[in-house]
User: Fold this.
Amino acid sequence: MYLRAPGLRVRPLGEGWVAYSGLSRESHLLNDESVAMLDELDECEPRSAREVAERLSGEAGMSVDELLAIMTDAWPTLVEVGLVRELPAAGTA
Amino acid sequence: MLLDPLDARWLALLTASPPAALDDWSLEDWQRCVRVARRLRLLARVAHAVRRQGAWPVVPAGPARQLQAEHELSAWRSDKLRWALDRVGVALQGAGCPRVLLKGAAYMAQGLCIAAGRLPSDADVLVPRDALAHCQALLAEAGWREPELDAHDQRYYREWSHEVPPMHHDLHPVELDLHHNILPPVGRHQVDAGLLFARLEPSGWPGWQVLHPQDQLLHSACHLAYDSEPRERLRDIVDADGLMREFGRTRADFWPGLVARARELGLTEPLWLVVTLAVRWMRTPVPDPVLVELGAVSPPAWRRAWLLPLWQRLLAPVDPDRQGEWRQDLAALVVLVRYHRNRMPLRLLLPHLLHKARRPPADDPVKALE
Amino acid sequence: MRSGMASAPMPRLCEVAASEVFQRLNGPGLDLCVGALNVRVHSNVRSLADQVQAAYGQFPASHRAPWIDLHLNVVLRRQLHRWWKPQVDLWHDGRLLFEPFPAEAALPLLEWGMNWLIARTRNDLLLLHAAVVERQGFAMVMPALPGSGKSTLSAALGLSGWRLMSDEFGALDLGERRFRAVLKPAALKNESIGVIRSFAPERARFGPSFPGTRKGTVAHLAASADAVDRVHETAAPGCVLMPRWKAGSPTTIEPVAPTMTFSKLAFNAFNYAVTGAAGFEAVAHISRSVKAWQLVYGDLDDAIRELDVRWPGLIEPPTGV
Assistant:
């Protein structure tokens, strides 16, 4: 389950995007896909990867499973650099 | 020339209540304050105190930009520390042992007054000795790397020290110091870590605990008393004063039994030292019964006669217009010898110091600007 | 601030005797107002007086600043052995910085120390690693990138009617989002020194050359009187220019994408990370609201002519923002 990090700032810049995380204090250049993922997340209401893929599949013109596969590698990076927060799976501390 | 901390108006500012007036400060007063406080790494705390008092509008432009600059630096370092510990906490989730924050991180996690305006560069974490190896492995998996050490240094850390070599991570500017005790196990003063772990408390950060408030003060005290480079560490006295003021006010179980606990852990002399200096320089309000108890365990008069002036000389700020202070250098040398004697028995100390001397000095941390 | 009454113009360092400069250094201190900050230099090293006089020639000789941001002291080490070569130390607020330098290299030590401290103590500003020149109130920001030749180019621009604000620091006030000067002598290295000497043989004033530094030979080009006199004038961001010197290349100026601009400014700054959200917003704003250009050139005169001609177009704001 994922949440958008608090204090996140995303700005369009020409063909790309720049983002700032208040959590990690880092700035990153992002592509459209990552920004779309961030856009579908909420700061308070956790969403699963599948939910995000479902929301995006219409726009992306891809099946949910295709999208899930593409996004798999992106999640750990987004978490590591402080753009996304990951909640532990239900049932663990 | 050594400055008397009592002369520093800005030092009183850190604890002033009701807030001291700042509008009668001359530019010269501010100049002195900025130079000395920055050197002592207390400038961001001064900035915080000024803001807290709502006195920012009366600060002239020159000092204001220096206070602002230091505030930004402090905020950045503190945020980076918080973030690094967030990731360390995730890495150690499966460790199955208590994870304890020490020093600055602990103060931040508890939201204490002295959490503001800090300049942390290390994250200090305490875990039980028998969980150490497992924790190191989990951290290594998460990208925390220990420096490459030769066999001697490895042995130093593994057998003689109370901490593992500082760990680094590519994505974090803070160093991670993993401890299993607050003092080295082969030193002359040994603390039973089990006693510390028996009284842990939750912090404001999930998954992290802190020492009992009394133990936090005692740790702060022994951290100062047994450190190798105590010069101008007035900020440690400021911390001790802050802990005593806040816990003294918020915790009914702080003052009673404090001296007894110090005796239990073998830390009466550091406690005596830190309380004496805090009362002298920060006018910390310590209840009389505690002072009486402390008096009963204080070092004998002949020892106090040289120990107290030595520490006063060490911690007093040096005049910013002077180049060094030989009296302080001499005092520092005495403490350095004590430091090593306290950490290791002589038979281990000599080979260790020889080894340190033979190694090439670490790279100058200063990088040339282009 | 000047008083209302008419007074004789303040003498500049190059107009007074070197002994007077030394008296100041060895006494009350020499105050240098470089724009965003004031520096007070003390020293007991006689040769430093001559070096400072040459490198800071156009600065006022007897300025007394009410507020000092940096107190520096360049001190001759006490020599325990007369055959040891004399060395100097740099002190800041009673703290020793760096290793000692040979006494004859006091100026490079002072400059290095000043730059190092500026980068560490002015986190209230966003400090880009860039040269900045100003024209008609607009700043042209040249990020310092390897092989860019930005020092040579900005020095030449400063000698061609453009106002040099800084050779090293793009100091942005985060509130006003305007650039402030951090005007110091430009440290030119190796071939650059010769290039600038030939570029403007009458106007270019250098301090002594220091061979054998980590970067080779270094010499300091003094700022012009105009640049010194206007050190408090700020400038709005006008454009970003990324120079690249390439032997024999014709002068070309091509647009650069905003994301590239962001990278080159943010990830090459001294203290971008420390300025947090404010720094992020400022760099994003600059990257969006001004144009960025890649300049490739082989001939300095030609490059400057081209920049002159194309200037109005360079600072035109991007459309559709």
